[in-house]
Amino acid sequence: MSGHNKWSSIKHKKGAADAKRGQLFTRLVKEIILAARNGGGDPEANPRLRTAILNAKAANMPRENIERAIKRGTGEIEGANYEEVVYEGYGPNGIGLVIEVMTDNKNRTIADLRHTLTKYGGTMAESGAVAWNFEQKGFFNVPAAGLDEDEFMLQALEAGAEDIELNGDYFDVYTAPQDFHTVLANMEKLGYPIENAELTRVPKTTINADDVAPKIFKLIEMLEELDDVQKVYANFEVSDEVMEALSQEA
């Protein structure tokens, strides 16, 4: 399992997944704004916007917030001019980090990233030093309760998925990035509830982080606390035993 999913799982086990509701809403609003700005305000004609709205609704964002964000993206309402930027870094044990941000002030963002990385045992990296080790994939979860594993996997593959893994209470579904929205739509037509739909980055190679697990989790947690950070990816593995021990700490 990739470090990205290990981190997601342990956050859920700790009950700390995006616990700060306002921070989660800020990230979702930024994604809606940028999706609407780049592809228009009609979700039927803009797959990225449709996915952003799906995630916003799953987080119980009020409809008026969603509509306001779309209008900010299309220019009907004035607002900050966000841009997407990707930064790279290293954590303990040379673990690679890819940090996706949406910002209206790159100087502020870089200063915040550098400060946080330095404080929690990481360093900034040059562009391209880390990102080469990550593949872009489409990714979403489907709750496994009540589903037959073999039947679900067969239907997901027929819908265009590249890979499916049963991970605890959820099926993790991966797609080629260009097929993401098509597979998502196909699975929705089959009646499956979709959660956490996103374009993600999956590491090609990983580093064992058992001896520095608390440090890398803390570093990622603090990076995700930064207002401009949307997502953090890392190429680490931790054993089930270490993950279980950490999940008991809160």
The count of helical stretches stands at: 9
> CATH homologous superfamily name of the largest domain?
YebC, transcriptional regulation domain
Range of strand content: 15-25%
Radius of gyration: 18 Å
| Fold-level CATH name of the largest domain | Alpha-Beta Plaits
Secondary-structure arrangement, i.e. CATH architecture of the largest domain: 2-Layer Sandwich
Principal-axes geometry comes out as globular
CATH class of the largest domain: Alpha Beta
| N/C terminus separation | 23 Å
Quick structural gist:
This is YebC/PmpR family DNA-binding transcriptional regulator. Keywords: DNA-binding. The chain is of the alpha+beta class and 250 residues long.
Explained architecture:
By secondary structure, the chain is α+β, with helices and mostly antiparallel strands. It has nine helices and ten strands. It folds into three domains: 12-74, Integrase, N-terminal zinc-binding domain (Arc Repressor Mutant, subunit A); 83-132 and 204-247, Alpha-Beta Plaits (2-Layer Sandwich), CATH 3.30.70.980; 134-203, Alpha-Beta Plaits (2-Layer Sandwich), CATH 3.30.70. It has helices at 3-14, 21-39, 47-58, 63-74, 106-119, 149-158, 180-189, 213-225, 240-247, and strands at residues 83-90, 96-103, 123-125, 134-143, 163-167, 170-175, 195-203, 207-208, 229-234, 236-237. The strands form three sheets. A four-stranded antiparallel β-sheet has the order 3-1-2-9. It has a four-stranded antiparallel β-sheet with strand order 5-6-4-7. A hairpin with a 2-residue loop joins strand 5 (163-167) and strand 6. Helix 1 (3-14) runs parallel beside helix 9. The two termini are 23 Å apart. Residues 12-18 have low confidence and may be disordered.
